[in-house]
């Protein structure tokens, strides 16, 4: 494995460091990194937690592509080398660890909660939903915030102010929820939001949970266009 090593402030630029790792048939790339950390070089820094494609913390660039390292097997790359670099588009804190503050701020900016207006009901009030109403937004709720879609997005890499795929898909997760009364028009109908997307579709291609952010964005463009001629239109 060739692993990017970088300490901003100490190193001029990232360098690839080579490590010999056993090619075990059931080892994910993350297992290879853990082998390096445990057996060869304890100073290597990277994030991971669940090891089962749920927490979203182990995203890295594997042989040039954004991948979840716990869900990508070493054997996919033959005898190697397998090159591991941090996700593109994000500042590097150390080695393979990237700064996600900007991403978290973008998620918060779309009001990722159920917005209710004009009612004074107890917090325990239930809002029943049909299976069809659940299905309308369910795919967007599968996002694990792994950042792969941002790293694959050519717009985000060039324009860091772009709201980006996961945040827009998250907004649609609530917009399409029958219990929600907002449409997040003020944060989505912007040049740096849905109108910045050039519909390359890489975000959808790399999503390990089969969310379709490209569809979410195109769909909201239609919503925003309709709303501009029919102001009462919300979905
Ligand atoms: Fe949690 Fe890979 S370690 S998604």
Broad shape: elongated
Total strand segments: 7
C-alpha termini separation: 48 Å
Q: Give the averaged pLDDT, no decimals.
A: 95
| Rg for CA atoms | 20 Å
CATH topology of the largest domain: Fumarate Reductase Iron-sulfur Protein, Chain B, domain 2
Query: What small molecules does this complex bind?
Result: FE2/S2 (inorganic) cluster
CATH superfamily of the largest domain: Alpha-helical ferredoxin
| Domains (count) | 2
Describe the protein's architecture and organization.
- Its EC number is 1.3.5.1.
- One of its GO terms (biological process) is respiratory electron transport chain.
- Pathway: Carbohydrate metabolism; tricarboxylic acid cycle.
- Its cofactor is [2Fe-2S] cluster; [3Fe-4S] cluster; [4Fe-4S] cluster.
- With 235 residues, the chain is of the alpha+beta class.
- The chain has two domains: 2-98, Beta-grasp domain (Ubiquitin-like (UB roll), Roll); 100-229, Alpha-helical ferredoxin (Fumarate Reductase Iron-sulfur Protein, Chain B, domain 2, Orthogonal Bundle), CATH 1.10.1060.10.
- The protein contains nine helices and seven strands, in the order E-E-H-E-E-E-E-E-H-H-H-H-H-H-H-H.
- The strands form two sheets. It has a five-stranded mixed beta sheet. A two-stranded antiparallel sheet has the order 6-7.
- Helix 2 (101-109) packs parallel to helix 6 and helix 6 crosses helix 9 (213-229).
- It starts with a strand and ends in a 6-residue tail after the last helix.
- The model has no long low-confidence stretch (mean pLDDT 95).
- Bound molecules: FE2/S2 (inorganic) cluster.
- FE2/S2 (inorganic) cluster is lined by residues 48-51, 53-58, 68, 70.
């Amino acid at each position: 494995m060739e692993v990017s090593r970088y300490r901003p402030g100490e190193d001029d630029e990232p360098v690839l460091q080579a490590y010999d790792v056993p090619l075990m048939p059931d080892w994910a790339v993350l297992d290879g990194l853990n082998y390096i950390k445990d057996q060869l070089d304890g100073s290597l820094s990277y994030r991971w937690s669940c090891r089962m494609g749920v927490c979203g913390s182990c995203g890295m660039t594997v042989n040039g592509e954004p991948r979840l390292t716990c869900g990508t097997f070493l054997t996919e790359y033959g005898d190697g080398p397998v090159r591991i670099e941090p996700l593109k588009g994000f500042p590097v804190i150390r080695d393979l660890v990237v700064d996600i503050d900007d991403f978290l701020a973008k998620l918060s900016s779309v009001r990722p909660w159920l917005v209710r207006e004009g009612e004074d009901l107890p917090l325990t009030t239930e809002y029943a939903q049909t299976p069809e109403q659940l299905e309308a937004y369910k795919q967007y709720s599968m996002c694990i915030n792994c950042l792969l879609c941002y790293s694959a997005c050519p717009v985000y890499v060039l324009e860091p102010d772009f709201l980006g795929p996961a945040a827009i898909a998250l907004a649609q997760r609530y917009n399409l929820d029958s219990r929600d009364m907002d449409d997040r028009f003020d944060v989505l109908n912007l040049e740096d939001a849905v109108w910045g997307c050039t519909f390359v579709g890489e975000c959808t291609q790399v999503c390990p949970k089969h969310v379709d952010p490209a569809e979410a964005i195109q769909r909201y463009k239609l919503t925003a266009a309709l709303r501009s001629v029919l102001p009462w239109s919300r979905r």
